[in-house]
Amino acid sequence: MSIPPVDEHLFHLPSKEGYEEIYKKAFPEENSQVEDSDYKHLASPVSLSDDGYNIFLIEWGQQGKLVYGEDGEKNWLGEVVMKIGEFQGVVNEAYKKFFDNAESIRMQ
């Protein structure tokens, strides 16, 4: 994530409301006046997004929160709270392991 997903307002909203607000920014309606989508908080792998599932990361202070749901702003499903940076750490470690394994296979 090149832009830190920090937002005090969204973090302190109940997760259902935060999900709805972020969803509207990431996927504005076609007839809205919004010119650009805001993907700052989008953390879904493409394969999940293609299947209609969305995961958004919000950070504030020393905590991060993943809020997730099915396609549509009103389809919030849940949240996971963690330490700030924990999500990025897990993704980076998985990415590194994947490419380390791919490199070792190529060298065989």
Structure characterization notes:
There is one protein chain. With 108 residues, the protein is of the alpha+beta class. The protein has one domain. It is built from four helices and three strands, in the order H-H-H-E-E-E-H. The protein has helices at 8-12, 15-26, 46-50, 86-106, and strands at residues 53-60, 63-70, 76-83. Strands 1-2-3 form a three-stranded antiparallel sheet. Strand 2 (63-70) and strand 3 (76-83) form a beta hairpin. The chain is globular, with a radius of gyration of 16 Å.
Count of DSSP-assigned helices? 4
The outline comes out as globular
In helices, the fraction of residues equals: 25-40%
Instruction: Encode the helix/strand succession as letters.
Output: HHHEEEH
Question: How is this fold's topology laid out?
Answer:
Blueprint: H1 8-12, H2 15-26, H3 46-50, E1 53-60, E2 63-70, E3 76-83, H4 86-106
Antiparallel strand pairs: 1-2, 2-3
Please name the defining characteristics of this protein:
4 helices, 3 strands
